Every structure is written in C-alpha cells, then in structure tokens.
C-alpha cells in the first residue's frame, strides 16, 4: 500500500477535507476563519510565527494562554525584540524546550535589525531567519502570505500516513508523507488546507482512538480499509532512554531561597534555577555541594523526562551557617550569579518545569 494507490483520489480527499474545515475549524486566537484569506484578510505573520513556535512539542490547549500572555505583553515583533531575553525566558517558563524562546527572541531582533521589522513572505527567505526551520517557514508562508507550500506537522504526518497507509517506518517514511501532502495541497488556499489537515489530525484522526466514524474521508482511507488504523504512522523500534542523576541545592535564609542563572549554553541555558551539581544530557552530576557545611540529602524526589534522557533528582538542603552571596570578597561568595528570591513569590521566578517540580516537592514536604 502507499501513495501511488491513491493518486486518483487526491482531488476528492482534498475537497472533502476542505469542506469539512469550513464548518469545523477550531477557533484559535492566531487564526482567521476559513476562506477569509481568499477575501484578502490575512492573519498577522507575527501571530502565526509565535503560535507555530509555541506549538512545536506543545498542545494547543497549553499554548493558548501563553500566546495571549505574550501578545498582551509584546504586541508586535518590535516590542518582543526590545524585551530583555531574561524576561522572555521567564514568560516562557512552563512551556519547555527553552531553546525555542531564545531563538524567538533572536529572530525578532534579526527581523528588526535586518528586515526593517517586516517578516519575509517567501518560504525560502523565511528559512534564512534564525531558529526558523522547514516546517515553520512553510507554515508562515502558506498561512500568513498565501504561498503554495507543503506543510507537514505531527498531525498532518499521522493523517497522511493513515490515508495512504505508508508502511516505511519514521523517520524514513517522512519522504512519502511529504509527497502525499504535496499531492493533496491545492494551488490556492494552501494555508487553509494545511490548517484543515492539522485540525483533522488533532480532532478526528487522533493518535489514540481516532474517530473514523466521524471522518469525512473514511471511504478513501487506506489504513481504515485495511482495518489497521493504529498501526500508522509506523514508528521506528524504540531505544531505551538514558537515565541521569543530578543533585539540586536548597539554600534558604529568612524566607528567601537562593537561585542562580544557568550558564548561557547547554541544558536550560540562561534560565533561572536552583544551584545544581553540573548534571547534563551526557553525564550525571558530580554530587559535590557548592560549599562545605551541614547538608540533608533527599534522594530521587523528582523524575523528569527530556527528549533524549530522563533525570532523577536528589535534593540537598542546607542547614549550616548563613552564607554571604553579595559580598565583594569572592572567598565569601561561594556561588556566582546568585540572588535571594522570596519563597512566597517563587511562582514569578520563571523557573523551568523541572525546578518547579522540585520546589513543589520541598514546599509540600516542609
Ligand atoms: Fe484517520 Fe480514520 Fe479518517 Fe482514516 S478514516 S483518516 S484513520 S480518522
């Protein structure tokens, strides 16, 4: 089974998906309703870009409130470019994959400095912007500017793999999936069509228990005809994830907690965090406390999953003498780049989810 068997049905499938979208499009704050683009009403490219970056690896439900918070605080690409990176990272806290926030900010500055504050309109030009990959470039060009591009996100990938019963396991199967989407995408209205397919994948052709009974293209779907819907898209054999161990340090004084800013490169770069022992994707931490003293150890209190590894966290709580972090004498300043943060206001510290979990555990435990 595969793409060639369905070539003759491509037009019919595309028409049914487009018709279905007219009455069933999800109302989302970065979109214009179906058909409006044809009438000359286009969504703001800044909104399309922001939403597409936020939606990578994150659900629509989680993104909506972040999108609204960002556009309220930074209503234009110029205002985002003028923001401090630390503020953008703090506002992003909780969405995960923080390289996206750093790239977002870098890209906004690039557009202001090099493109007179205007988004390029062509997929090929969008690809030159920092942090914009093939998917995002195709999506912005089609949705915000009407270029006929081939847009393939995870929802579309699943929909195409099932419609065409593409047997090649991912990631090699992506080539056939792209050919399939290319065959279906119309010359006009590629943006609406991409969003129609995204919606189908998100609401009907879902990863688990797809609603084939409500599907407008059920009669044309090869996976359905084979009775093997959940086999597609065919996944590669699973690799087991590495497990790393890291130790975080809880240093409290007068209802304040010691926080640091992480190094500018590496995991969770430049984010505010608890001090730790140098764990990383490729190594366990060194379990060494930042200074000698009385430490109480709690082992494996939190487990956190990153894309390529899982982290088990130990927490060491300091019970020794007061430490001075603001001293000019570096011998009295055992942790660099540290600040005291009021414990009752930790929710405003912009801590990444991993550190948020540790804080929650500790405050519950007290
Ligand atoms: Fe997806 Fe089922 Fe529709 Fe096929 S019939 S496209 S598997 S929802």
**Strand and helix order:** HHHHHHHHHHHHEEEEEEEH
**Low-confidence residue ranges:** none
What is the top-level CATH class of the largest domain? Mainly Alpha
Distance between the termini: 59 Å
Q: Briefly, what is this?
A:
With 366 residues, the chain is an alpha+beta fold.
What does this structure look like?
The protein folds into two domains: 3-153 and 171-204, Hypothetical protein, domain 2 (Endonuclease III, domain 1); 242-365, Nucleoside Triphosphate Pyrophosphohydrolase (Alpha-Beta Complex), CATH 3.90.79. It contains 13 helices and seven strands. It has helices at residues 10-24, 45-55, 60-73, 77-82, 85-92, 99-114, 123-126, 134-145, 154-163, 174-184, 190-203, 222-226, 353-365; strands spanning 242-250, 252-253, 256-261, 272-273, 295-305, 309-318, 338-342. Strand 5 (295-305) and strand 6 form a beta hairpin. Helix 2 (45-55) packs across helix 3 and helix 9 packs across helix 10. The protein starts with 9 loop residues before the first helix and ends with a helix. Iron/sulfur cluster binds at residues 159, 162-163, 204-205, 210, 212, 215, 217-218, 221, 223-224, 229.
SSE topology:
Layout: H1 10-24, H2 45-55, H3 60-73, H4 77-82, H5 85-92, H6 99-114, H7 123-126, H8 134-145, H9 154-163, H10 174-184, H11 190-203, H12 222-226, E1 242-250, E2 252-253, E3 256-261, E4 272-273, E5 295-305, E6 309-318, E7 338-342, H13 353-365
Parallel strand pairs: 1-6
Antiparallel strand pairs: 2-3, 3-4, 3-7, 5-6
Helix pairs in contact: 1-11, 2-3, 2-8, 8-11, 9-10, 9-11
The site of iron/sulfur cluster (SF4) has 14 residues, from helix 9 and helix 12.
């Amino acid at each position: 089974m595969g793409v060639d068997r369905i070539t003759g049905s491509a037009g019919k499938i595309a028409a049914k998906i487009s018709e279905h979208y007219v009455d069933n499009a999800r109302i989302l704050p970065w979109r214009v309703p179906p058909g409006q683009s044809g009438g000359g009403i286009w969504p703001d490219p800044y909104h399309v870009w922001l939403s597409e970056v936020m939606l990578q690896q994150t659900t629509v439900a989680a993104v909506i409130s972040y999108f609204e918070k960002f556009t309220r605080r930074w209503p234009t690409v110029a205002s985002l470019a003028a923001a401090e990176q630390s503020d953008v990272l703090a506002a992003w806290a909780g969405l995960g994959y923080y390289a996206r926030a750093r790239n977002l900010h870098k890209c906004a500055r690039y557009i202001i400095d090099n493109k007179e504050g205007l988004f390029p309109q062509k997929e090929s030009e969008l690809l030159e912007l920092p942090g914009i990959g093939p998917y995002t470039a195709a999506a912005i060009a089609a949705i915000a500017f009407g270029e006929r591009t081939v847009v393939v996100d995870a929802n579309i990938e699943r929909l195409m793999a099932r419609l065409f019963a593409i047997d090649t396991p991912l990631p090699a199967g992506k080539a056939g999936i792209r050919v399939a989407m290319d065959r279906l995408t119309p010359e006009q209205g590629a943006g609406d069509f991409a969003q129609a397919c995204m919606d189908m994948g998100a609401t009907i052709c879902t990863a688990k228990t797809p609603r084939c009974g409500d599907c407008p293209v059920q009669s044309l779907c090869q996976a359905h005809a084979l009775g093997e819907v959940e086999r597609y898209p065919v996944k590669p054999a699973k690799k087991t994830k590495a497990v790393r161990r890291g130790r975080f340090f809880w240093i409290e004084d007068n209802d304040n907690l010691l926080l640091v800013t992480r190094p500018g490169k590496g995991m969770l770069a430049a984010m505010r965090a608890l001090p730790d022992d140098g764990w990383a994707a490729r190594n366990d931490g060194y379990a060494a406390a930042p200074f000698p003293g009385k430490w109480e150890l709690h082992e494996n209190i939190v487990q956190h999953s990153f894309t390529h590894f899982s982290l088990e966290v130990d927490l060491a709580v300091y019970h020794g003498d007061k430490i001075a972090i603001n001293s000019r004498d570096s011998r009295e300043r055992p942790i660099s780049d540290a600040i005291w943060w009021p414990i009752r206001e930790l929710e405003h510290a912009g801590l990444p989810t991993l550190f948020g979990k540790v804080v929650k555990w500790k405050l519950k435990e007290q």
